[in-house]
Amino acid sequence: MESRSIIELSNKLLIPTYTRFPIVLRKGRGVKVWDVDGKEYLDFLAGIAVNVLGHCHRKVVMAIQKQVQRLIHVSNLYYTEPQLNLAKLLIENSFADRVFFCNSGTEANEGALKLARIYMKNKFGQERFEFIAAENSFHGRSFGSLSVTGQAKYHHGFEPLLQGIKFVPFNDVTAMEKAITDKTAAIILEPVQAEGGINIPSKNYFKKVRELCDKYNILLILDEVQTGIGRTGKLFAYEHFGIKPDIMSLAKGLGSGIPIGAILTTEEIAQAMGPKTHASTFGGNPVACAAAVATIETILEDGYLLDYAQRMSKYIIKKLNSLKEKHQEKIKEIRGVGLLIGVELSINGASIVKKCIEKGLLIGTAGDGSVLRFTPPLIIEKENVDKAIHILNSVLTDIQ
């Protein structure tokens, strides 16, 4: 079927929750994808920070194929080896003692909120139920995760949301402490606000937040849905800050494109959720876990990819800063950690993204639309970066 027919039929059949670009992608390899008409694109969005090893990485594909032939699904009424293997990998390489598997980032955050609330109520009483979150944050689309998302545009039409939520400015410890009361159960934050515009905290922000949590007996939940699994040049972004969370959520890059999410926590906190308190039919699916195991093992192999991602980050940011010098009237700031990079513009980025797609480069926007978002695979090479910068330069030159 030709692309026009696919687009027209999809627009008739699907609930219109997405504003899609008029291309139909058919296949991908590494850093590139191709549409049904055979046009090639350089993918610097990677499924919105999902395809950390690029498209159809050989080891991930082999792991999926092998598992599909063996066992696809049995539910959590039984044990499976892929789930155990993934749990061991995550625990051995993080702060955590226990893991719960689900299917997405919003589910992971939803479960993290439930876990924090039941633990704090059990330990301190029924009044310890409130959460503090950051303005400009994004934690998901379900009612709980939406309720702690600090962007009103996502709330519109779905009110009333979960009660007992306070929002404070990101990177403001003073405001955070003022918001704490004897009802506060947990603080939920992203190590870097990705959807909010690639907002990076000051060097000591998370150390001070951790100190507040310890001082007032509050749990720290870190939403690493977008920053986790190598995206920032560390396996988990909290490693940059010299702290440990009490609960962490993962998804996106964990399965290299196969849907999977996870909640990581300590032994003590995990014990608050016994049988019947939480569940997920597809959580820890054998195929998804096999894909995740292959993903993490590949990233951790010799530590090469994590160091490489940090080197490539410096290269991209250097190139983008050169563009900034050339287009000072359009580019305000370049910021990023690892391969989570934002280009803040003085103009709206939607038209730039559209023009880049026309020229064969896939990127996105973040925040209010004035930030270009780059989340390429960890396997990108300098020649990929040079081509992307060339395309972006030509688009910025053409746009008046």
How would you state the average pLDDT, rounded?
97
Distance between the termini: 37 Å
Q: Count every beta strand, where a strand is a DSSP E run of 2 or more residues.
A: 15
* Helicity, as a percent range: 25-40%
SSE order, as H and E?
A: HEEEHHHEHEHHEHEHEEEHHHEEHEEEH
Main β sheet profile: 7 strands, mixed
CATH architecture of the largest domain: 3-Layer(aba) Sandwich
How many separate helices? 14
SSE class? alpha/beta
Strand content: 15-25%
Task: Tell me which oligomeric state these chains represent.
Answer: single chain
Low-confidence stretches: none
Q: Which geometry do the CA atoms define?
A: globular
CATH fold-type name of the largest domain: Aspartate Aminotransferase, domain 2
Provide the number of structural domains.
2
How are the SSEs ordered, and which strands pair?
Layout: H1 3-13, E1 25-29, E2 32-35, E3 40-43, H2 46-49, H3 58-70, H4 81-92, E4 98-102, H5 105-124, E5 130-134, H6 143-147, H7 152-155, E6 165-168, H8 173-179, E7 184-189, H9 205-216, E8 219-223, E9 247-250, E10 261-265, H10 267-270, H11 286-300, H12 304-326, E11 331-337, E12 340-345, H13 350-358, E13 361-362, E14 364-366, E15 371-374, H14 382-398
Parallel strand pairs: 3-13, 5-6, 5-7, 7-8, 8-9
Antiparallel strand pairs: 1-2, 2-3, 4-10, 9-10, 11-12, 12-15, 14-15
Helix pairs in contact: 3-11, 4-11, 12-14
